[in-house]
Protein backbone atom coordinates (compact mmCIF):
# COMPACT_ATOMS: atom_id res chain seq x y z
CA UNK A 1 0.00 0.00 0.00
CA UNK A 2 1.06 3.60 -0.67
CA UNK A 3 0.24 6.23 1.96
CA UNK A 4 -0.75 9.70 0.75
CA UNK A 5 1.50 12.35 2.28
CA UNK A 6 -1.39 14.85 2.57
CA UNK A 7 -4.35 12.92 3.89
CA UNK A 8 -2.64 9.67 4.97
CA UNK A 9 -5.08 7.63 2.87
CA UNK A 10 -3.85 4.15 1.99
CA UNK A 11 -3.80 3.61 -1.78
CA UNK A 12 -3.22 0.42 -3.73
CA UNK A 13 0.28 -0.36 -4.97
CA UNK A 14 1.05 1.27 -8.31
CA UNK A 15 -1.46 4.12 -7.90
CA UNK A 16 -0.24 7.46 -9.22
CA UNK A 17 -2.84 9.73 -7.53
CA UNK A 18 -4.51 9.59 -4.13
CA UNK A 19 -8.05 8.21 -4.35
CA UNK A 20 -9.16 10.58 -1.55
CA UNK A 21 -7.57 13.98 -2.31
CA UNK A 22 -6.11 13.52 -5.78
CA UNK A 23 -2.55 14.42 -4.72
CA UNK A 24 0.13 12.87 -6.99
CA UNK A 25 1.74 10.08 -5.03
CA UNK A 26 5.49 10.56 -4.44
CA UNK A 27 8.19 8.79 -6.47
CA UNK A 28 9.49 7.49 -3.19
CA UNK A 29 6.16 5.78 -2.53
CA UNK A 30 6.17 4.25 -6.01
CA UNK A 31 9.69 3.03 -5.53
CA UNK A 32 8.81 1.45 -2.22
CA UNK A 33 5.85 -0.22 -3.85
CA UNK A 34 8.13 -1.83 -6.44
CA UNK A 35 10.66 -2.92 -3.85
CA UNK A 36 13.33 -0.40 -4.96
CA UNK A 37 15.32 1.91 -2.64
CA UNK A 38 15.05 5.64 -3.55
CA UNK A 39 18.36 7.28 -4.49
CA UNK A 40 18.09 9.85 -1.69
CA UNK A 41 17.67 7.07 0.81
CA UNK A 42 20.74 5.30 -0.66
CA UNK A 43 22.88 8.41 -0.31
CA UNK A 44 21.84 8.81 3.32
CA UNK A 45 23.03 5.35 4.30
CA UNK A 46 26.55 4.85 5.70
CA UNK A 47 29.07 3.41 3.25
CA UNK A 48 31.87 1.19 4.51
CA UNK A 49 35.14 1.30 2.60
CA UNK A 50 37.87 -1.28 3.17
CA UNK A 51 41.53 -1.53 2.20
CA UNK A 52 42.81 0.83 -0.51
CA UNK A 53 39.46 2.57 -0.82
CA UNK A 54 39.44 3.23 2.92
CA UNK A 55 42.96 4.62 2.83
CA UNK A 56 42.09 6.87 -0.11
CA UNK A 57 38.96 8.19 1.58
CA UNK A 58 40.74 8.77 4.89
CA UNK A 59 43.59 10.58 3.17
CA UNK A 60 41.24 12.79 1.20
CA UNK A 61 39.20 13.55 4.30
CA UNK A 62 42.32 14.66 6.16
CA UNK A 63 43.77 16.82 3.40
CA UNK A 64 40.70 18.40 1.78
CA UNK A 65 37.94 17.94 4.39
CA UNK A 66 35.62 16.46 1.80
CA UNK A 67 33.76 14.37 4.37
CA UNK A 68 31.38 16.04 6.75
CA UNK A 69 32.78 16.50 10.28
CA UNK A 70 29.61 14.82 11.56
CA UNK A 71 30.50 11.59 9.81
CA UNK A 72 31.67 8.65 11.94
CA UNK A 73 35.44 8.28 12.23
CA UNK A 74 37.30 5.22 10.96
CA UNK A 75 37.37 2.13 13.15
CA UNK A 76 39.46 -1.02 13.32
CA UNK A 77 37.85 -4.21 12.19
CA UNK A 78 38.05 -7.22 9.95
CA UNK A 79 40.05 -10.37 10.54
CA UNK A 80 42.29 -9.74 7.51
CA UNK A 81 43.87 -6.67 9.05
CA UNK A 82 41.96 -4.21 6.87
CA UNK A 83 40.83 -0.97 8.50
CA UNK A 84 37.30 0.01 7.38
CA UNK A 85 36.35 3.65 7.17
CA UNK A 86 32.66 4.48 7.59
CA UNK A 87 31.46 7.56 5.73
CA UNK A 88 27.93 8.77 6.29
CA UNK A 89 27.49 10.24 2.83
CA UNK A 90 28.00 8.09 -0.27
CA UNK A 91 28.48 11.12 -2.49
CA UNK A 92 31.22 12.38 -0.16
CA UNK A 93 32.88 8.98 -0.32
CA UNK A 94 32.98 9.13 -4.10
CA UNK A 95 34.40 12.65 -4.04
CA UNK A 96 37.03 11.57 -1.50
CA UNK A 97 38.13 8.66 -3.66
CA UNK A 98 38.35 10.88 -6.76
CA UNK A 99 40.39 13.49 -4.88
CA UNK A 100 42.79 10.81 -3.69
CA UNK A 101 43.30 9.47 -7.20
CA UNK A 102 43.99 12.97 -8.51
CA UNK A 103 46.59 13.61 -5.80
CA UNK A 104 48.28 10.26 -6.50
CA UNK A 105 48.50 11.02 -10.22
CA UNK A 106 50.13 14.38 -9.50
CA UNK A 107 52.83 12.79 -7.31
CA UNK A 108 55.88 11.67 -9.32
CA UNK A 109 57.12 8.13 -8.89
CA UNK A 110 60.16 7.75 -6.69
CA UNK A 111 61.52 5.01 -8.86
CA UNK A 112 61.80 7.36 -11.85
CA UNK A 113 64.01 9.74 -9.91
CA UNK A 114 66.55 7.15 -8.87
CA UNK A 115 66.39 4.52 -11.58
CA UNK A 116 67.50 6.56 -14.59
CA UNK A 117 71.11 6.54 -15.71
CA UNK A 118 71.11 10.28 -16.46
CA UNK A 119 70.50 11.24 -12.83
CA UNK A 120 73.77 9.58 -11.72
CA UNK A 121 75.70 12.40 -13.40
CA UNK A 122 74.30 14.80 -10.80
CA UNK A 123 75.62 12.83 -7.82
CA UNK A 124 78.90 14.22 -6.51
CA UNK A 125 81.66 11.59 -6.58
CA UNK A 126 84.45 13.86 -5.28
CA UNK A 127 84.94 17.28 -3.71
CA UNK A 128 87.51 20.02 -3.22
CA UNK A 129 87.52 21.75 0.16
CA UNK A 130 89.36 24.99 0.95
CA UNK A 131 91.49 24.26 4.01
CA UNK A 132 93.16 27.62 4.67
CA UNK A 133 92.21 31.29 4.81
CA UNK A 134 88.91 33.07 5.27
CA UNK A 135 87.00 30.56 3.16
CA UNK A 136 88.30 27.49 4.99
CA UNK A 137 85.74 24.69 4.95
CA UNK A 138 84.02 25.80 1.75
CA UNK A 139 83.30 22.78 -0.39
CA UNK A 140 83.10 22.39 -4.17
CA UNK A 141 81.43 19.10 -5.23
CA UNK A 142 82.61 17.37 -8.41
CA UNK A 143 79.78 15.79 -10.39
CA UNK A 144 81.26 15.06 -13.80
CA UNK A 145 84.26 13.05 -15.01
CA UNK A 146 85.88 16.33 -16.03
CA UNK A 147 85.91 19.43 -13.82
CA UNK A 148 87.61 22.77 -14.51
CA UNK A 149 89.12 24.95 -11.78
CA UNK A 150 89.38 28.72 -12.26
CA UNK A 151 87.55 32.02 -11.93
CA UNK A 152 84.19 32.94 -13.37
CA UNK A 153 84.25 35.42 -16.27
CA UNK A 154 80.93 36.10 -17.99
CA UNK A 155 82.46 38.41 -20.59
CA UNK A 156 84.75 35.64 -21.80
CA UNK A 157 82.16 32.90 -21.35
CA UNK A 158 84.25 31.10 -18.72
CA UNK A 159 82.20 29.26 -16.10
CA UNK A 160 84.45 26.78 -14.26
CA UNK A 161 83.01 23.90 -12.26
CA UNK A 162 85.14 25.00 -9.30
CA UNK A 163 84.81 28.78 -9.23
CA UNK A 164 87.38 30.37 -6.88
CA UNK A 165 86.63 33.96 -7.88
CA UNK A 166 85.16 34.99 -4.51
CA UNK A 167 87.87 33.08 -2.60
CA UNK A 168 90.85 34.57 -4.42
CA UNK A 169 91.13 38.24 -3.35
CA UNK A 170 94.61 38.61 -4.87
CA UNK A 171 93.51 37.16 -8.22
CA UNK A 172 96.23 34.52 -8.20
CA UNK A 173 93.93 31.95 -9.80
CA UNK A 174 93.78 32.03 -13.58
CA UNK A 175 90.47 32.03 -15.42
CA UNK A 176 91.26 28.56 -16.77
CA UNK A 177 93.72 27.31 -14.18
CA UNK A 178 93.56 23.51 -13.91
CA UNK A 179 91.45 20.48 -14.73
CA UNK A 180 90.54 17.33 -12.78
CA UNK A 181 89.57 14.22 -14.74
CA UNK A 182 88.39 10.75 -13.76
CA UNK A 183 89.34 7.72 -15.86
CA UNK A 184 88.39 4.16 -14.82
CA UNK A 185 88.10 5.23 -11.18
CA UNK A 186 91.46 7.02 -11.08
CA UNK A 187 91.64 10.80 -10.72
CA UNK A 188 94.16 13.09 -12.43
CA UNK A 189 94.95 16.80 -12.33
CA UNK A 190 96.72 18.93 -14.90
CA UNK A 191 97.66 22.58 -15.15
CA UNK A 192 96.19 24.49 -18.10
CA UNK A 193 99.00 27.01 -18.49
CA UNK A 194 98.14 29.09 -15.41
CA UNK A 195 100.14 32.17 -14.39
CA UNK A 196 100.85 31.13 -10.80
CA UNK A 197 100.97 27.37 -11.15
CA UNK A 198 99.41 24.21 -9.71
CA UNK A 199 101.05 22.11 -6.97
CA UNK A 200 100.26 18.73 -5.39
CA UNK A 201 101.30 18.04 -1.78
CA UNK A 202 103.80 20.94 -1.83
CA UNK A 203 105.72 19.23 -4.64
CA UNK A 204 107.06 20.68 -7.82
CA UNK A 205 105.01 22.94 -10.00
CA UNK A 206 103.10 20.99 -12.63
CA UNK A 207 104.00 21.67 -16.21
CA UNK A 208 101.10 22.71 -18.45
CA UNK A 209 99.42 19.60 -19.78
CA UNK A 210 101.40 17.33 -17.44
CA UNK A 211 98.66 15.13 -16.06
CA UNK A 212 99.40 13.79 -12.56
CA UNK A 213 97.53 11.15 -10.48
CA UNK A 214 95.33 12.60 -7.75
CA UNK A 215 94.40 10.60 -4.66
CA UNK A 216 92.00 10.99 -1.77
CA UNK A 217 93.37 13.45 0.81
CA UNK A 218 95.88 15.13 -1.53
CA UNK A 219 96.52 18.83 -1.05
CA UNK A 220 96.27 21.02 -4.13
CA UNK A 221 97.58 24.57 -4.32
CA UNK A 222 95.95 26.69 -7.01
CA UNK A 223 97.76 30.03 -7.11
CA UNK A 224 97.53 30.91 -3.42
CA UNK A 225 94.40 28.91 -2.66
CA UNK A 226 94.91 25.71 -0.65
CA UNK A 227 92.46 22.90 -1.36
CA UNK A 228 92.03 19.34 -0.08
CA UNK A 229 90.80 16.66 -2.48
CA UNK A 230 88.29 14.06 -1.23
CA UNK A 231 86.85 11.03 -3.01
CA UNK A 232 83.23 10.62 -1.89
CA UNK A 233 82.34 7.27 -3.49
Keywords:
5-stranded mixed sheet, rod-shaped, 14 strands, 233 residues, 5-stranded antiparallel sheet, alpha+beta
Fold and architecture overview:
- The chain has 5 helices and 14 strands.
- The strands form 4 sheets. Strands 6-5-14-13-11 form a 5-stranded antiparallel β-sheet, with no helix packed on it. Strands 8-7-9-10-12 form a 5-stranded mixed β-sheet, with no helix packed on it. The protein has a two-stranded antiparallel ribbon with strand order 1-2.
- It is of the alpha+beta class and 233 residues long.
- Helix 3 packs across helix 4.
- The termini are far apart.
Write the layout of secondary structure elements.
Elements: E1 2-3, E2 10-11, H1 27-33, H2 39-44, E3 47-49, H3 52-64, E4 85-87, H4 90-106, H5 110-115, E5 126-130, E6 139-142, E7 146-150, E8 162-163, E9 176-183, E10 186-191, E11 198-200, E12 212-214, E13 219-222, E14 225-231
Parallel strand pairs: 7-8
Antiparallel strand pairs: 1-2, 3-4, 5-6, 5-14, 7-9, 9-10, 10-12, 11-13, 13-14
Helix pairs in contact: 3-4
Number of strands: 14
Rounded to an integer in angstroms, the radius of gyration calculated over CA atoms is 38 Å
Shape: rod-shaped
Strand content: 15-25%
Q: What is the rounded distance between the termini?
A: 83 Å
Largest sheet: 5 strands, antiparallel
Enumerate the strands of the largest sheet in spatial order, edge to edge or round the barrel. 6-5-14-13-11
The average pLDDT value, as a whole number, equals 73
Helical region count?
5
Structural class by secondary-structure content: alpha+beta
Low-confidence spans: pLDDT under 50, at least 5 residues?
36-45, 60-88, 102-120
Helix content: 10-25%
Order of helices and strands: EEHHEHEHHEEEEEEEEEE
Amino acid sequence: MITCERCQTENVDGAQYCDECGLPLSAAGSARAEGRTPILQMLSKPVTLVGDAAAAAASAATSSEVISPDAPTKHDGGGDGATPVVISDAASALRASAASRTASAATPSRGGASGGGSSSAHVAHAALVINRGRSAGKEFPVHEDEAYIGRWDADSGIFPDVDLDSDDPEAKVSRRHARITRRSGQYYIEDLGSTNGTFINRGRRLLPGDRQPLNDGDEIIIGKTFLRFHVMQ
